[in-house]
Specification:
By secondary structure, the protein is α/β, with parallel strands linked by helices. Among the domains are: 170 residues, 3-Layer(aba) Sandwich (Rossmann fold); 87 residues, no CATH class. Helices cover 50% and strands 9% of the residues. It contains 16 helices and six strands. The termini are far apart.
Length: 368
C-alpha cells in the first residue's frame, strides 16, 4: 500500500510533456523502482483533474474520478505514487481543499517545475495562438504586462499567461495547507544541459533514484515557427463560434501535419527590450520567492537568469516577415483544399489566403 503521493502541479511550458510521456511509457520500469505512476496513463490523470476543476456543479460527481485516482494510488504496491498534471496549478483554495480530502493519511508532497521566463513568453504566446488568441506577438508582449501599479489587465492574454506562470502565488496557495508536508521547486535546465538532467532533478524531488528509462519514447512537443504561429492567430479571427473541443482537434491536426514541418525554415518571435526587462523581473521574482519560502530547490537559481545588461534587444518587437506568413498560409491552403477536394489556385494576398484557409477549415471539419 502506497503511503506517499507526489503531486507534480506544473507549471505549463516547463517540460511537463517530456516528463509525463516518459513517466507513462516507462511505467513498468518505474514500478520496479518503487514508483507508481498512478493509473499508468496520463489521460486517466488528466480526466480526474479536469473533472475536479471543471466538472459538474454537484460536488460528489465533480470529484468522483479524482477519488478513484487517489484510491488507485493507495492500493499501489509501490511506496510512492506520482500524479503529474499541470492543471493542478489552476486550483483555488476551495478546490485544493477537496483535492486533498481523500488523501488523508498519506504523506503529500508537491513538486513544481519552473523555467526561465525569457523562454516562457514565446512558448505561452504559441499556446495562446493555438487556443483562439488573436493578438500578434508585439501586442501580446504588452498585454501580458500589468498596468501601472501592478494592476492586472482585463484581456485573455494577461489572464492565461499569469494563470499559468504566477508560480509564487501557486506555490504559496498549496503550501498553506497543513496536509502538504513539503513543497519542491525544480528548475528546468538550459538547452545545453544533457537530456536526462530534468529527469534527474525531478526524481531528486520525488525522493527516488532516477530510473534508467528510454527517453526515445517521450512524445515530442514540437513548437512552431513565427510565421505558423502568426497564421493561427490570424485564422482565429475567422473561427469564432466553434465548440472548444472541435476547434482544438482541427487546429492541432493542422499544426501537426502541416505547420510543424515548417519550423526549421521559419524564424522565431524574439523579445524586445521592454519584454526582456519584464522577463528579467519575473525571473527575479521567482528567485526571491524560492529564497524566502523554504521550498526545497532542485537545480540552480542560475537557470532563472537576471542579466545586468540587456544590450542587443530591439527597441520594438520584430513583426513576422510577410513572406513567411504568406508561405505558411499557402501551405495550409494546399493541404486543406486537397482534404476538401476543391482544387483551384490559392488567393494571392495574405488576408484573402487566411480567409480562404478559415473557410476550408470549416468545410473539412464540418464546422458551421
Amino acid at each position: 500500500m502506497s503511503d506517499r503521493i507526489v503531486l507534480h502541479i506544473g507549471a505549463m511550458k516547463t517540460g511537463t510533456t517530456f516528463l509525463q510521456t516518459t513517466l507513462e511509457r516507462n511505467s513498468a520500469v518505474l514500478a520496479g523502482a518503487g514508483v507508481d505512476f498512478t493509473g499508468n496513463r496520463f489521460a486517466y490523470q488528466t480526466r480526474a483533474v479536469s473533472s475536479a476543476l471543471k466538472g459538474p456543479k454537484e460536488r460528489g460527481r465533480r470529484y468522483a474520478r479524482w477519488r478513484r485516482l487517489v484510491q488507485a494510488a493507495r492500493e499501489a504496491e509501490q511506496d510512492t505514487s506520482v500524479v503529474s498534471m499541470e492543471f493542478l496549478s489552476f486550483a483555488d483554495d476551495r478546490q485544493i481543499t477537496h483535492l486533498l480530502q481523500p488523501l488523508k493519511g498519506m504523506r503529500v508532497e508537491v513538486v513544481m517545475t519552473v523555467r526561465d521566463q525569457f523562454l516562457v513568453a514565446p512558448a505561452q504566446w504559441q499556446t495562446y495562438c493555438r487556443n483562439n488568441g488573436i493578438a500578434d506577438w508585439g501586442t501580446y508582449l504588452r498585454q501580458i504586462e500589468p498596468r501601472i501599479g501592478g494592476l492586472p489587465r482585463r484581456n485573455d492574454a494577461y489572464r492565461t499567461f499569469h494563470r499559468a506562470q504566477d508560480v509564487d502565488s501557486t506555490l504559496r496557495r498549496w503550501a498553506a495547507f497543513r496536509r502538504v508536508k513539503e513543497v519542491h521547486v525544480v528548475t528546468v535546465p538550459g538547452r545545453e544541459a544533457p537530456q536526462d538532467e530534468l529527469w534527474t532533478r525531478f526524481f531528486d524531488a520525488v525522493g527516488v533514484a532516477p530510473p534508467t528509462v528510454d527517453f526515445g519514447v517521450a512524445a515530442p512537443n514540437t513548437s512552431l515557427g513565427y510565421g505558423s504561429c502568426d497564421l493561427l492567430r490570424r485564422l482565429n479571427r475567422h473561427l469564432d463560434g466553434i465548440p472548444g473541443g472541435r476547434y482544438r482537434k482541427g487546429m492541432r491536426q493542422l499544426a501537426r501535419e502541416v505547420l510543424a514541418e515548417r519550423r526549421d525554415i521559419e524564424s522565431r518571435p524574439a523579445l524586445d527590450l521592454r519584454g526582456a526587462e519584464y522577463a528579467r523581473q519575473l525571473n527575479q521574482q521567482l528567485r526571491d520567492s524560492i529564497d524566502r519560502s523554504g521550498f526545497v530547490l532542485h537545480g540552480a537559481l542560475d537557470d532563472l537568469p537576471v542579466p545586468e545588461s540587456l544590450d542587443g534587444y530591439d527597441r520594438k518587437p520584430v513583426p513576422v516577415p510577410t513572406e513567411e506568413a504568406v508561405a505558411a498560409a499557402e501551405a495550409a491552403w494546399h493541404y486543406l483544399s486537397e482534404r476538401a477536394g476543391t482544387g483551384g489556385r490559392p488567393p494571392r494576398s495574405l488576408d484573402k489566403l487566411v480567409r480562404d484557409d478559415a473557410r476550408l477549415l470549416r468545410k473539412v471539419h464540418g464546422w458551421s
